[in-house]
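Before the break, one more example. Copy the sequence into your notebook; we will annotate it together after we see the structure.
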Amino acid sequence: MKSSLFVAALALTLSLVSGSAADKKLLMLAGSPSHGHMEHEYRAGCLLLQQCLANTPGLQVTVVSNNWPKDETVFSGVDAVFMFCTGGGGHPANRPERLKLLGDLMKKGVGFGTCHYGVEVTKGDAGDAFLAWQGGYFETFWSVNPHWTANFEKFPNHPVTRGVKPFKINDEWYYHMRFPEGMKGVTPILTAVPPESTRGKEGANSPHGGNPHVQARKGQPEHVMWAFDRPDGGRGFGITGAHYHKNWADENFRKVVLNALLWITKVEVPQDGVQSTVTPEQIKENLDDKGQNKKKAAGQ
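Here is what the structure looks like once it is written out:
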């Protein structure tokens, strides 16, 4: 009898341990279709990252398409939220009730990360929130969004950079983000010196380039990905690349984002980083229909 009770108790203990180990939840919010074919492929990008994380012990990944879940109970019990979507005034989070929902999650230590256009929100309540949640954001008349080839040669000693090797890649690398005073809590992850031409025409002072603050930094290195340790114990990150969907095929570009997703979810990042393989066929999967199918039907 004692033996049977011992076995039952052991089985229950193992079940509880196993259950708790498999309960880290990452929610990815993918934006609605935007831009041209193989650009801003929010849904395909999120689904690809989900596939790459499928075998990660202790992690459940859910992808919600078209900007924001119709059923907000999907946020219940999440450990991190990742947004890859349209930004600016059209950012899915740019509504008071949604900022409140996300803010309540952040107060519980939930992680937060954004990618490419998703790092841009309007200055004010949304900008202040993103600054507090992920340690930086794209601010109009301060940040810039040029296309250029960034050469990443050195990385800080941080879980997000584990296994990442030097790489060079062309993308729409936004830079000169709005960061906290003194970069408090922020660890730059990807840094490179952009061509001077990317700073915009001097005096133009457009919402996305040419402002005097950016012009004054000619020749200086700029941060295009960062990690953030929040005072509340939560974690955040932002990466400004991923305009081009094909860039997910680059092992190091992909790895640094996969590592960051684990890190904000508080899942241990492997010493060599997240190992994943992506085929050309996978890159073509789940692409948004942006009119290319109609063109094919018309013989164009």
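Residues 1-21, 293-300 have pLDDT under 50 and may be disordered. The CA atoms of residues 94 and 126 lie 6 Å apart. Try to locate both features in your own notes.
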